[in-house]
Specification:
- The complex is a heterodimer of chains A (323) and B (759).
- Chain A has 323 residues and is α+β, with helices and mostly antiparallel strands.
- Chain A has two domains: 57 residues, Uridine Diphospho-n-acetylenolpyruvylglucosamine Reductase, domain 2 (2-Layer Sandwich); 220 residues, Uridine Diphospho-n-acetylenolpyruvylglucosamine Reductase, domain 3 (2-Layer Sandwich).
- Chain A contains 13 helices and 14 strands.
- In chain A, α2 links the parallel β2 and β3.
- The radius of gyration of chain A is 19 Å and the shape is globular.
- Chain A starts with 6 loop residues before the first strand and ends with a helix.
- With 759 residues, chain B is α+β, with helices and mostly antiparallel strands.
- Chain B has three domains: 150 residues, Aldehyde Oxidoreductase, domain 4, CATH 3.30.365; 185 residues, Aldehyde oxidase/xanthine dehydrogenase, a/b hammerhead (Aldehyde Oxidoreductase, domain 3), CATH 3.90.1170.50; 319 residues, Aldehyde Oxidoreductase, domain 4, CATH 3.30.365.
- Helices cover 28% and strands 25% of the residues of chain B.
- In chain B, β13 and β14 form a beta hairpin.
- The chains are: A alpha+beta (323), B alpha+beta (759).
- At the A-B interface, α8 and α13 of A face α3, α18 and α20 of B.
- Bound molecules: flavin-adenine dinucleotide (FAD) and iron/sulfur cluster (SF4).
- The site of iron/sulfur cluster (SF4) has 14 residues of chain A, from loops.
């Protein structure tokens, strides 16, 4: 499969990149390209212009400051998990980043691209000819959703590995636009709409991830269930963070909805409770409520549901071991 | 002790190993010819439809498009690998039968334009009702996929040996169980590709193709293009795996040749990965019902089979696949009475074809599973039941097979020992278990003149040895093995031998790589050709060595007198002597070889001896089931293997390791999932075959027999080991968690469900 035709821009200043995005509504950003280019070959995404981020200065770094760990959006996943501070203090992030795809994806793929990756669906991530057996689906520009069997909705699933770890850390992201930048909680950039999963303003670029210092003061882990030991997207992924000082828990999941989700009901339930077999009993039911499982992949829903509870429980019992 | 052989039996790297590692090996898609055009095929988007009209005008007008062809324009000549089952056109005529069926092709100055052009072709379809399951397709009133094929049953076979009813009546235990084996794709790393070039001066079209069968491809191509075979030359570059998927002609071959002839320019077609999954071949899904009668101590008295194979839209190898599935139930166990009824049924789905084991893996899975279930019912050891029922060399065979050598019983004991059977079976903690499976496979086919191999061995003035063989090396190392055989016969080193292979314009006839016959058939041809060279060289130097030619030996670069190695002449010098005597050069030996037998058979009509020899093997698996996630980890796989005398044990191990990964895929990972005939996972990402990270520790035990027919006693090693890993794994899962799985694949989800039901 060949790439469709597109214009290629490689701005050297962020403002210039933002200007191109504003000027050309059909332009798309490209970081490592490991997600975008596959969709383009499938003609599932056909941007008129690709705006490469690779020439932008100073977006490839992992930097410890007094209040936070800051990671540039263009930092390759491999550099993220090899960072000594990440490896030692933020294991959930290290595990998640090193579980993405294969080694090749980890060297080419960036953390910004990982967060902003497209949602996935068995009717969408296919060649154009394959998709011609059915009417164009809603996400691809048609009306009908083949998953929901209804018009005007899209249940494609967010499958990124890194987002749940960062959500559990309470991370924020910096979005840079033509007129400056704003810092928002990571959770806010996900729309929950399968068709346009990102809630980033037109002309904005995710430039930095900010992980508060508090994240390093606690237990964290990421559990990923996938078909094989390499390459595969998560069937389900779950991150758990538990503060060593306050006992607060934060739990987030991926591959269970159109966006990565925080398991707030479970977090509230765990508030002030000991981690023990009794509290674990409630996990399955509470976690299930946070997801919106739809048959958008070839994995069975009942298996996914089982894995959600299982991954969270096993992360929590690991957390208990540390307490 | 003096070692018997110098080159044969040694672990030597493949001749092309370095080229493959450093990337210089040329596969078909690597070929670039000046002015080459690029082709693309339009495939059906519907599972079953009449083609009312194909409008190519827009595509033809696109700038850069050089040619368009539709099914209506090509000669009315169907093809297929089995003559009596031909049912396919390179481009569909009038009707499409599955999503992926080829309708038209374009070629253009680059790939982008070709891709754009096929999208401009407008097809008017009249959609027809479709059917996706063979058990529905055989019903009265089901949609008719091929005119004139009643109940969509394109091939039926019923064979009875002995008296099955009597056997059941005499049995202590009769068990009847049902099994299902899923569609599996070969997933070769190299996608299918073809490049064609027309040579108007010689009036010949040359096709480079990723094929396992250059000579059969030549025949099919000539027939469908309606030109003489002599006008077609097929050359096989390096092939990156075939596993049976590349033993058919495909639209890419026909279309490349068609355009090359029409346009006078070279043309390339390379399939996308989803085209490989959807538009080539897969292992037939099969429903099997098996009834077995046994004595109290586990001797098999009779077996009855009812098989429905889901053929998809076309026949491909259907009759052969069904016949193999039937006859190979009578090895490796002695089955005195057998009744087999099998049906090959069309559905509107991807096409079934030969795949490593060819119809036997499905049947073997059923039998090996049921043996374990019956052993349990009889309170017998599954390993014991296997060696007790082993056929023996020389024993009369109900199907007419002539078994010259058989290391099966020994292989059961050796594999069981290697996995720690005695200490482990039934004794490991919950979640861990061991299991085994046995199998046997033919080493090619007897007595069919179109399944013969030729070889030419030529010694040049510098004493270098050149071999011409038609054998198709598809990554298994056929060229290396043939070179080893020639080197051994002539007593030279492997470095002295150059092989030119698989070019119908230059090398002698060979049927190609299938049925695991290459080493025995092409190897024997090469051996005999080399022996005739040796004979003439011995006659030439006998005087000088003052010995009879019959008393000479060629080994390690010298020719010497038996028992007196000090009386010798180096090989190169011997050749000089040959030239000084003014004997005609080059020194050439030729041979044609086919496996002879007194009772030949095609299996379709009369029984008989199908193959010159049969390999035997037992595989034993140890698994660990994660009872929380349902995931199965294969910890170890031990294989005890009788492939006669291995010509190159390292290459045998390569085959074996690949078949363990393949067997794991069949048992646990792989399934071509379809939804209304559409393949839902046509990519390496979603299909999910096991990778090196999943592959277990592997131990291989060689049960060496010395086969009288094979070159240096060799038997097949290419397919047999693919038969038993899957049942061994599933049997081990039973030992681990006490659940019988009779349907494949055993996914984590099914394991969890079964564990819950057990509670
Ligand atoms: C075979 C395969 C397996 C994979 N397995 C996994 C897996 O297991 N887990 C997983 O999480 N991912 C997986 N991926 C997806 C992908 O490789 C990774 O998510 C990778 O991290 C994406 O990063 P990238 O830099 O290559 O993104 P790109 O492809 O460059 O971009 C992805 C998307 O994000 C947008 N984008 C990129 N950077 C920014 C930015 N700074 N601001 C705003 N938008 C931006 C792009 O416009 C694009 O839409 C897999 C992909 C493949 C092909
Ligand atoms: S969920 Fe529906 S709309 Fe979204 S990509 Fe899948 S089929 Fe299309």
């Amino acid at each position: 499969m060949r790439l469709p035709k597109f214009d290629y821009r490689r701005p050297e200043r962020i403002q210039e990149a933002c200007a191109i995005l504003l000027d050309q509504p059909c332009a798309k950003l490209m970081a490592g390209g490991t997600d975008l280019l596959v969709n383009m070959k499938h003609r599932a995404e056909t941007p008129s212009t690709i705006v490469s981020l690779k020439a932008l200065p100073d977006l490839d770094f992992v930097q410890k400051t007094n209040s936070a760990l800051r990671i540039g959006a263009l930092t390759p996943l491999k550099k993220v998990y090899n960072d000594p501070f990440v490896a030692a203090k933020l294991p959930a992030l290290a595990i998640a980043a090193s579980s993405v795809g294969s080694y090749h994806h980890q060297t080419m793929g960036t953390i910004g691209g990982n967060l902003c990756q497209q949602t996935r669906c068995k009717y969408f991530n296919q060649s154009k000819w394959w998709r011609s057996s059915r009417p164009l689906c809603f996400k691809a520009g048609g009306e009908l959703c083949h998953v929901a069997k209804r018009e005007g909705v899209c249940y494609s699933t967010y499958c990124g590995d890194v987002a749940p770890a960062l959500l559990a850390f309470g991370a924020e992201v910096i979005l840079t636009g033509a007129h400056g930048l704003r810092q928002v909680p990571l959770e806010e950039i996900f729309s929950g709409d399968g068709k346009t999963p990102l809630k980033i303003g037109r002309g904005e670029i995710l430039t930095e991830i900010v992980i508060p210092n508090q994240a390093a003061d606690g237990f964290s882990t990421y559990g990923k269930s996938a078909n094989r030991g390499s390459i595969d997207f998560p069937i389900v992924g779950a991150a758990v963070w538990r503060s060593s000082s306050t006992g607060e828990s934060r739990i987030a999941l991926t591959a269970v909805d159109r966006k990565p989700v925080r398991a707030r009901r479970l977090e509230d339930f765990l508030e002030g409770k000991q981690l023990n077999e009794e509290t674990f009993q409630a996990v399955d039911g509470l976690v299930a409520k946070e997801s919106r499982l739809m048959p958008s992949s070839i994995d069975s829903l009942s298996y996914k549901r089982k894995l959600m509870g299982l991954l969270v429980q096993s992360a929590l019992s690991e957390a208990r071991g540390g307490e | 002790m003096e070692k018997q052989f110098s080159v044969v039996g040694r672990r030597l790297p493949m001749l092309d190993a370095a080229a493959k590692v450093n990337g210089s090996a040329q596969f078909t898609d690597d070929l670039m010819l000046p002015g080459m055009l690029h082709g693309k095929i339009l495939r059906s988007r519907l599972p079953h439809a009449k083609i009312l009209n194909v409008d190519v005008s827009k595509a033809a007008r696109l700038r850069g498009v050089k040619g368009v062809v539709t099914g209506a324009e090509i000669p009315d000549r169907q093809y297929g690998i089995v003559p009596k089952a031909r049912d396919e056109y390179a481009l569909a005529k009038g009707k499409v039968r599955y999503i992926g069926d080829e309708i038209a092709a374009v070629c253009a100055i680059d790939q982008e334009i070709a891709e754009e052009a096929v999208e401009l072709i407008e097809v008017d379809y009249e959609e027809l009702p479709s059917v996706f399951d063979p058990l529905d397709a055989i019903k009265e009133g089901a949609p008719i996929i091929h005119e004139g094929v009643a109940n969509n049953t394109s091939f039926a076979i019923r064979k009875e040996f002995g008296d099955v009813e009597g056997a059941f009546a005499a049995s202590h235990l009769v068990s009847e169980d049902s099994f299902y084996s899923q569609p599996v794709n070969h997933a070769p790393l190299e996608p299918h590709s073809a490049v064609a070039q027309h040579d108007p001066i010689r009036g010949q079209v040359v096709l480079w193709s990723s094929t396992q069968i250059p000579f059969f491809l030549r025949r099919n191509l000539a027939a469908t293009l309606q030109i003489p075979e002599s006008r077609v030359r097929v050359i096989k570059p390096k092939v990156g795996g075939g596993f049976g998927q590349k033993i058919d002609m495909f639209a890419k071959d026909f279309c490349a040749a068609w355009f090359a002839m029409k346009l006078g320019k070279p043309v390339k077609f390379t399939y996308e990965r989803d085209e490989v999954f959807i538009g080539t071949r897969q292992r037939h899904p099969m429903y099997l019902k098996v009834k077995t009668g046994m004595t109290k101590d586990g001797k098999i008295l009779g077996q009855q089979f009812l098989a429905y194979a889901d053929g998809g839209a076309y026949n491909s190898t259907a009759p052969t696949m069904m016949a193999l599935s039937c006859f190979f139930l009578m090895v490796p166990y002695h089955v005195p009475n057998l009744l087999y009824e099998g049906y090959h049924v069309y559905t509107n789905k991807p096409v079934g074809g030969a795949m490593r084991g060819h119809g036997i893996p499905q049947a073997r899975f059923a039998v090996e599973r049921q043996l374990d279930m019956m052993a349990e019912r009889l309170n017998l050891d599954p390993a014991e039941i296997r060696w007790k029922n082993s056929i023996k060399a020389g024993e009369p065979h109900p199907g007419g097979f002539v078994i010259n050598t058989c290391g099966f019983a020994e292989s059961v004991r050796a594999a069981a020992k290697a996995i720690g059977w005695k200490e482990k079976r039934g004794k490991l903690p919950f979640g861990r278990g061991v299991g085994l499976g046995g199998a046997s496979f033919p080493s090619g086919v007897t007595n069919m003149s179109h399944i013969s191999s030729g070889a030419v061995v030529q010694v040049g003035q510098d004493a270098s040895v050149n071999v011409l063989t038609g054998a198709a090396d598809i990554g298994q190392g056929a060229e290396t093995v043939i070179a080893q055989i020639v080197a051994e016969v002539l007593g030279v080193s492997l470095d002295d031998v150059r092989v030119t292979a698989a070019d119908t314009g230059a090398t002698p006839l060979d049927p190609g790589t299938f049925g695991s016959g290459v080493t025995v058939r092409a190897g024997n041809a090469a051996r005999i050709a080399a022996e005739s060279v040796k004979k003439r060289l011995f006659e030439c130097v006998a005087d000088e060595l003052e010995a009879n030619p019959e008393d000479l030996v060629a080994k390690d670069g010298v020719i010497f007198v038996t028992g007196s190695p000090e009386i010798n002449i180096p090989f190169a010098k011997a050749l000089k002597a040959y030239q000084y005597k003014d004997l005609p050069m080059p020194l050439v030996g030729r041979a044609s070889w086919m496996a002879d037998t007194s009772e030949p058979t095609t299996l379709f009509n009369q029984p008989g001896n199908f193959s010159p020899s049969y390999s035997f093997m037992t595989q034993a698996a140890e698994v660990e089931v994660d009872t929380k996630t349902g995931k199965v980890k294969v910890i170890k796989m031990a294989t005890a293997h009788d492939c006669g005398r291995p010509i190159n044990p390292m290459l045998v191990e390569g085959q074996l390791e690949g078949s363990i990964a393949g067997g794991m895929g069949q048992a646990l990972y792989e399934n071509v999932i379809t939804e209304k005939g559409q393949v839902m996972n046509p990519s390496f990402l979603d299909y999910g075959f096991p990778t090196t990270l999943e592959v277990p520790e592997m131990e291989s035990i060689d049960i060496e027999t010395d086969d009288p027919v094979g070159p240096f006693g060799a038997k097949e090693a290419g397919e047999g080991t693919q038969l038993s890993p899957a049942p061994a794994i599933v049997n081990a899962i039973y030992d681990a968690i006490g659940v019988h799985f009779n349907e494949l694949p055993v996914t984590p989800e099914r394991i969890l469900k079964a564990l819950e039901e057990r509670k």
